[in-house]
Amino acid sequence: MTGAPIALTCGEPAGVGLEIAEKAWLALKDELPFFLIADPTHLPGTVPHKLLQSPQEAAKVMADALPVLPHPFAAARTPGTALPENADGVVDVIAQAVDLAMEGEASAICTLPIHKKALKDGAEFPYPGHTEYLAALGGVDNAVMMLASDMLRVVPTTIHIPLSEVPAALTPALLEETLRITAKGLQTQFGIAVPRIAVAGLNPHAGEGGAMGHEDASVIAPVLESLRREGFDITGPLPADTMFHAAARARYDVAVCAYHDQALIPIKTLDFDGGVNVTLGLPFIRTSPDHGTAFDIAGTGQANPSSTIAALRMAAQMAQSA
Questions:
Q1: Which of 40, 127, 173, 199 is paired with 299 by a 20 to 30 Å CA distance?
Q2: Is 260 one of the annotated binding-site residues?
């Protein structure tokens, strides 16, 4: 175990995150160092923990106890019910993790799930979600969400908007920026010198020559051609329905899709428990499990830690490549 440890943020304490953190420690305690930023009184207590004075202590205690950098919260943990009094604590833990990453005391950040409504109600949180808040903390205007596993990497160009708004939102500028950030992220954080990028069309059959929509030819294709002239290895626009079988996946490193479900359905079908949310374009490494707070099972011990374990492992791999 060498290098700075990974910072794991607690997320919404009323959800399954803290239960998963303890399970992740059991799986990874002999593999890689990480530390949890949380209120120690919120821990379920299924494993031993040790309080840290600084992140540097994490590697020394990792084999024997879950390393915890304490961050007091205003209220107790109530599994399944988010308390507005704890919203400021959730937000502040994320900011603390970013500070540690920017200062080099953490090699990467892995974020456990937050509950956006609870943050808006309790802390007037002005961001749509984790990604936008992290971008603001990192001083960047835009970041790209990538879902990744050993089987597939996907990037949705437009994310949490109604399907009816996608054609207008899918502008040449947005697509180009998404492709540039994606390519750079694969180069700098995944060690892929010339990423092979496959781009899905917006319409069925990628528009079929204009018979099923004009956006593929008028919006997507010119952007791809321009980037090819710069040396990007890009194919598309491709019919999305033939992009995700095994032989097709072998021909690219990442699939950039037009909208949320076009990207997320394939990866969640192929690897539901192993998918990792990666944010590209930040000045630090950030991964996250690809699930929410799961209030319905919080406190029951049923939460599956597979995605968080995969997210911590991917963060460690990315840190080695950076």
A1: 127
A2: yes
